[in-house]
Specification:
The complex is a heterodimer. By secondary structure, chain A is an alpha/beta fold. Helices cover 59% and strands 12% of the residues of chain A. Chain A has an 8-stranded mixed sheet, with helices on both faces. In chain A, helix 5 runs antiparallel to helix 6, helix 10 packs across helix 12 and helix 11 crosses helix 12. The two termini of chain A are 16 Å apart. The relative contact order of chain A is 0.15. An 8-stranded mixed sheet of chain B has the order 3-4-2-5-1-6-7-8, sandwiched between helices. In chain B, helix 3 packs across helix 5 and helix 7 runs antiparallel to helix 8. The two termini of chain B are 16 Å apart. Classes of the chains: A alpha/beta, B alpha/beta. The interface between A and B is large, with 85 and 76 residues.
C-alpha cells in the first residue's frame, strides 16, 4: 500500500534520519519514540530510536531494562503485550556522552599514548562529563556514526535539552571552526615551544594573575593534546554537517499550543529554512479536545450554571441531596467554561501560526501518562493521521 | 529555616515548559511589593523576563522596572569586563576588549568559566549588599548543577591565582542557607516530578546550595468534594444524562465530557503530586492552574498573589 502523500507515514517511508526538535517539555522524546514505534509497526525494515535524554520511563515503555550507548532490540514480548505485531524491527539506544567522547578521542588521537594522556587530563574530564554543552556536538556525532554503521533503514533521534534549541545544528561547524582558530594556536604556543612569543606576552601576564601558571599550563596542555586530533576532528565535523543537510535527513518540530513553546517552534522553523535543512512536519502536542470549542455546549453550560438549583431539584431524588446535586451541576458547568477559555486560546494560537509546514499532525491531551508500548502506539496512531 | 524571601540569593530552576520564568518573576514582584529592594536576573538566554513583566528587553545594566524591582540579563562577557575593571583596575576598555574575546574562546572549551562569571556576578551583588534579594531566573534543571557547582569545579582545577581566591567567598555565600537557596519549579506531571526528585538528590550531593522550596505550578482545582464525585458518576449514567439533556439541552454531552477530563487529569496528577510530596523534604508551594486568556504581567501578578498566600504573607 502506497503511503498517503503529505503524511507522517510518507515522511518516515522516504527518509533515513528523522530529528525531533522543539523546546523543553513539549514531548519531543516521546514523539520520537512514537514515530519509531509506528515505523517499525507499519513499515518493513530496521528502525532505531536514539534518545539523548536518559529517561528511564522510555526504556521501561520499550520493554528494555535500561539501555546504553549500544543499541538493543526491543523485545517481541513488549509488542505482544501491547497487542500489536511489528512488520519491521525496532532498536533503541541512548546517548552516553562520556563514552562517546572517549571513543572519539581514541579514534582521532595520533597514537595510543596521546589518547591516554587526553583521557587523563583534568580539563578533559570536565569537558566530557560535567558540562552539558558538550552534548550538542556529541549527539550529532553519534547519529553520524550510527548512520555510517549502515545497520538501520531509519534512525529517529530526539535533540539535547540545550539552552538554545538550535545550538546542536551549529555544533559540528563550531567544532571545526574551533580547531582552526588563531586563538587556539596562540594559546598552545607556549606549550609547544616553551617560549612565550613576544606578541602573546601581555595576554599571559594578565591571564597568569587571574588563573595562575599551573592552570594555564593545564589549559595549554589540554589544547596542545587536543590539537593533535584536529585533522580528523575537522573532517568528521564536516561530514556530520553534510549528513544533517542531506536530503535523506528531515526535521520534525514538536510544540504545544502554549505561547512560549510555539513562539520558539516558529523561530525554529524559520531557521531550518534559512539554513537549508529539510522541515518534514510539525507536531502539535497536548492539544485540548475540540469539543471544548462547541458553542452550543457553551450555551448549555451557561444555562446549567444559572439554573443549577432548579435542575438539581428536578433530578435530585435519584442522584443525591438536592444541595449536593446543585453544587455538582454548578461545578460541571464552571469546569467546562474554564477549560473553554484555554481551548479558545489554543485555537487562536493555532490560527495565528505564522509558518505552516506541509505536514501538521495534532495530538490530543491524553488524560493518562504514556507508560508502555501500548501508550506509544496510541500516540503514534494519532500522529499517523 | 530562613523564610524564603528573607534570604539574599534565590536561584529558580525547573524543567522546560513548567513556568520557571513566570515563577521567578512572581517571587521578585512579591519581594518588591513587600518592600525589599529586589534584583531579578535572567541567566537563561531563552528566558522571557521582559515578556512576563511586559517591559523593554533586559540588559546587563540593571533597570528599575517596577518600584523596588530591578531587572537585568546575564552577559558573561560584560561580567568579565566588570570583573577585570574591579579586580585588576584595568582602566582602558580598549585593552579589555581583545582579552574578553580570548576568554570567550577559552570558555568554549574550558567550560566552567562562563558559569563562574555568572555565579560570580550574582554573588558579588549579594556581597556588596546592593540589594535585599537577588532572584535568578536560572538555567533549566539539566544545567543547574553545573552552574551551582562551578566554584567548586574551578577550585579543584585552579590551584593559585586571583580566580582561586575569588571562589572562596563565592562558596561561602552559596553554601550559607541563611543567604542562598534553590527553588525548583515543577508541575504535577510525570516528567517534571521525576526531574525535580532527581535534581533534589544531585543538588545535595554535588553542590553546597540548599534546596529551599519546590513550587508546584498549574495545580488543577479539585472539582468535587466528599460524596460529590459519586453524584457526578450517577449523573453521567445514560438514563440520568438523558434527563439532564431534557432539562438544559441536547448539547450537554461535551459539558459532561469536559468534567470527566478534568476529574481524570486531576486524579493522574494527584499521584505525581503525592510522589513529589514524599520524595522531597522541603515546603511545597502550590500555584493554581490559571484558566486565563493571556500571559504576561496579569498572570505574573496572579502567580505572585498565590505564592504570597502560600508563604503566609
Amino acid at each position: 500500500m502506497a503511503a498517503r502523500a503529505g503524511s507522517i507515514e510518507q515522511l518516515l517511508a522516504a527518509k533515513e534520519i528523522v530529528i525531533s526538535c522543539g523546546s523543553g517539555g513539549v514531548g519531543k522524546t516521546t514523539t520520537a519514540a512514537a514515530l519509531a514505534v509506528m515505523a517499525a509497526l507499519r513499515q518493513d525494515g530496521r528502525v532505531l530510536v536514539l534518545t539523548v535524554d536518559p529517561a528511564r520511563r522510555l526504556a521501561d515503555a520499550l520493554g528494555l531494562e535500561g539501555f546504553g550507548n549500544v543499541a538493543k532490540p526491543v523485545p517481541q514480548e513488549a509488542f505482544a503485550r501491547a497487542g500489536v505485531e511489528p512488520r519491521g524491527e525496532l532498536w533503541a539506544a541512548m546517548l552516553d556522552t562520556k563514552q562517546s567522547w572517549d571513543a572519539l578521542v581514541r579514534r582521532h588521537a595520533p597514537d595510543r599514548a596521546t589518547a591516554e594522556r587526553i583521557l587523563d587530563n583534568a580539563l578533559y574530564e570536565n569537558v566530557s562529563r560535567r558540562f552539558v554543552q558538550s552534548h550538542d556536538y556529541i549527539a550529532m556525532e553519534r547519529l553520524y556514526e550510527l548512520h555510517c554503521e549502515g545497520s538501520y533503514d531509519l534512525i529517529v533521534v530526539d535533540t539535547p535539552p540545550t539552552r538554545n534549541a538550535l545550538d546542536f545544528l551549529d555544533a559540528p561547524a563550531r567544532m571545526a571552526e574551533f580547531f582552526s582558530s588563531r586563538f587556539l594556536r596562540l594559546l598552545t604556543a607556549p606549550y609547544r615551544s616553551r617560549i612565550v612569543s613576544f606578541a602573546s606576552k601581555p595576554f599571559y601576564t594578565v591571564a597568569d594573575r587571574i588563573l595562575g601558571t599551573e592552570f594555564l599550563e593545564d589549559i595549554a596542555e589540554f589544547f596542545g593534546l587536543f590539537q593533535t586530533m584536529a585533522p580528523g576532528f575537522v573532517e568528521r565535523a564536516e561530514a556530520v554537517t553534510r549528513l544533517l543537510h542531506d536530503r535523506r535527513t528531515t526535521f520534525v518540530v514538536v510544540s504545544t499550543l502554549e505561547a512560549a513553546p510555539l513562539h520558539e517552534a516558529e523561530y525554529f522553523v524559520e531557521q531550518l529554512g534559512a539554513k537549508r535543512f529539510h522541515l518534514g512536519a510539525m507536531v502539535l502536542n497536548k492539544v485540548l479536545p475540540s469539543y471544548l470549542l462547541d458553542e452550543r455546549a457553551a450555551v448549555v453550560a451557561e444555562r446549567l450554571r444559572r439554573e443549577a438549583g432548579g435542575v438539581a431539584a428536578r433530578l435530585a431524588p435519584e442522584l443525591g441531596e438536592p444541595a449536593q446535586v446543585e453544587r455538582v451541576l454548578a461545578e460541571v458547568a464552571d469546569s467546562f467554561l474554564r477549560f473553554q477559555v484555554v481551548a479558545q486560546r489554543e485555537a487562536e494560537q493555532r490560527a495565528e501560526l505564522a509558518v505552516v509546514p506541509e505536514v501538521v499532525a495534532t495530538v490530543p491531551y491524553f488524560d493518562a501518562d504514556i507508560v508502555d508500548l501500548g501508550g506509544l502506539v496510541r500516540l503514534g496512531e494519532r500522529l499517523w493521521g | 529555616m530562613t523564610a524564603l524571601l528573607d534570604r539574599r540569593l534565590l536561584f529558580v530552576t525547573g524543567k522546560g515548559g513548567v513556568g520557571k520564568t513566570t515563577v521567578a518573576a512572581a517571587l521578585a514582584v512579591l519581594a518588591a511589593q513587600q518592600g525589599r529592594r529586589t534584583l531579578l536576573c535572567e541567566v537563561d538566554a531563552k528566558g522571557d523576563v521582559a515578556g512576563v513583566l511586559e517591559t523593554a528587553p533586559t540588559r546587563f545594566r540593571e533597570r528599575e522596572v517596577q518600584p523596588g524591582l530591578w531587572a537585568m540579563s546575564m552577559d558573561t562577557e560584560e561580567s568579565l569586563k566588570e570583573y577585570l575593571r574591579i579586580n585588576l583596575r584595568l582602566p582602558a576598555m580598549a585593552r579589555i576588549g581583545p582579552l574578553a574575546r580570548i576568554f570567550e574562546f577559552v570558555a568554549t572549551a574550558a567550560p566552567g568559566v562562563k558559569e563562574i562569571l555568572t555565579v560570580g556576578k550574582l554573588a558579588y551583588e549579594v556581597r556588596e549588599r546592593h540589594y535585599d534579594l537577588v532572584v535568578v531566573d536560572a538555567v533549566a534543571t539539566g544545567h543547574i548543577v553545573g552552574q551551582l557547582a562551578a566554584p567548586q569545579a574551578i577550585q579543584e582545577l585552579v590551584q593559585v591565582g586571583l580566580v582561586r581566591q575569588q571562589t572562596g567567598w563565592m562558596l561561602d555565600i552559596l553554601g550559607d542557607p541563611q543567604q542562598t537557596g534553590l527553588v525548583v519549579v515543577s508541575t504535577p506531571e510525570e516528567m517534571p516530578v521525576n526531574e525535580t526528585v532527581e535534581l533534589a538528590g544531585r543538588v545535595r550531593e554535588e553542590t553546597n546550595v540548599e534546596l529551599a522550596a519546590v513550587v508546584v505550578n498549574r495545580v488543577l482545582p479539585e472539582l468535587f468534594g466528599r460524596g460529590e464525585e459519586a453524584v457526578f458518576e450517577r449523573l453521567t449514567a445514560p438514563e440520568h444524562a438523558a434527563r439532564l439533556a431534557e432539562a438544559v439541552g441536547e448539547d450537554v454531552t461535551p459539558v459532561l465530557e469536559a468534567a470527566r477530563l478534568a476529574v481524570t487529569l486531576r486524579r493522574t496528577r494527584a499521584v505525581h503530586l503525592e510522589r513529589l510530596r514524599t520524595a522531597v523534604d522541603v515546603p511545597l508551594l502550590y500555584v493554581p492552574y490559571l484558566f486565563s486568556r493571556s500571559h504576561g504581567l496579569r498572570s505574573t501578578h496572579q502567580v505572585a498573589e498565590a505564592l504570597g498566600q502560600e508563604l503566609g504573607s
